[in-house]
Design brief:
The chain is of the alpha/beta class and 429 residues long. The chain has two domains: 121 residues, Enolase-like, domain 1; 282 residues, Enolase-like C-terminal domain (TIM Barrel, Alpha-Beta Barrel), CATH 3.20.20.120. It has 13 helices and 14 strands. The strands form three sheets. Strands 4-5-6-10-11-12-13-14 form an eight-stranded mixed beta barrel, surrounded by six helices. A three-stranded antiparallel beta sheet has the order 1-2-3, with helices on one face. Strands 7-8-9 form a three-stranded antiparallel beta sheet. Helix 3 crosses helix 4, helix 7 runs parallel beside helix 8 and helix 12 packs parallel to helix 13. The longest helix has 23 residues. The mean pLDDT is 95.
Length: 429
Amino acid sequence: MSNIKKIKAREVLDSRGNPTVEVDVVTENGIFRAITHSGASAGQHEALELRDNDKSRYLGKGTLKAVENVNKIIAPKLIGLDPVAQETIDNVMLKLDGTENKDKLGANAILPVSMAVCKAGAASKGLSLYEYVGELYGIIPHMLPVPMCNVINGGKHAGQENSIQEHMLMPTGAKCFCEGIRMVSESYHHLAKLLKEKFGAGGVLIGDEGGFAPAKMTLVEDRLEIMLKAVENAGYEGLIKIAMDPASSEFFYNGKYKIGKKSFSGGEMVDFYADLCKKYPIISIEDGLAEDDWKSWVLMTKKLGAKVQIVGDDLFVTNTKRIQKGIELGAANSVLIKLNQIGSVTETLNSIKMAHDQGWTAVVSHRSGETEDYFIADLVVGISAGQIKTGAPARSDRNAKYNQLLRIEEELGDKAEYPGIDFRLDHLA
């Protein structure tokens, strides 16, 4: 046993230059550090991200209250506990908070402690982090994920209103992860060349998730066309498919969806996506409808779910109560997994298990405000989810995850599997 000797939190910066919380958990095996991330287009049902609201510091976005909650409330209750008791430790923190959405302590206080404890638990067992996550989940991990790489950013990630937010490339035709990320990286650079030729330097401005944010390219069709042209120029036509995250709650007003100057009902939005799927090789749509428009989600899943992965993000917020409702209604066939939406490793694993037990897929995801912490890379392999969403192959906060996956693939060697185009089949009932 290597029990927890010390827990120390501090305020650090994320990829957008905003404060977030970093935690060190100290045991006899060393110092285990984790940093929580932060979302821009956050769902209203997410666990609370506690901010100081002190306008004299970081425009009110400081996290000193969350840091204090770790150091003065959480840490004293965890000193002396064995870090391998992940569920017990997470439950101690949840009881200390005592609210539905982490309103007292903040998910950004609880989560980095939970992640750092998980890393300490792995070391205590003499396992790599992905192996240890697999042990917690009850499997022997072996599967690398197909990456969803957001190469054109719109919406809040690019400072735009009423705009489709994410346009992603998925290298489903690759034979292994290392080949897949290379294919996307090469396509990304060809895309940069095309955008610069078309728009000049303004065409290759970078959004929050590392993708390009060309202000003059507002139509989703134009974005998808130039992405496919870049893929063709890179020599991977047919080997790379498209995934989308419209983040539609951001352009939902009074029962209507507004993209540019056009307005759509829920049914018309479903038809809009159906038409796009006929024209382009789209295999996954996340948050195509608003977070509480359950009726339209059911319609979309019935119409497109057999051929397209229908992913709930704001709809489910990694919360088992909302996932259960989605299962009962048939409102999707996949769950996006974001650790900070729910606030602890244990709750995250419970949400993934609920999805997998239903035959749904689970897509492990970053946030737009990211850090150098690559915990989610080990998480996605540990649960053999088969898909990860962590931005363009650009900026160290994104590539930290891809680089860790390259290391894990190398470590697994011949045991490593890459699902490719079959990324959904392993979990379909």
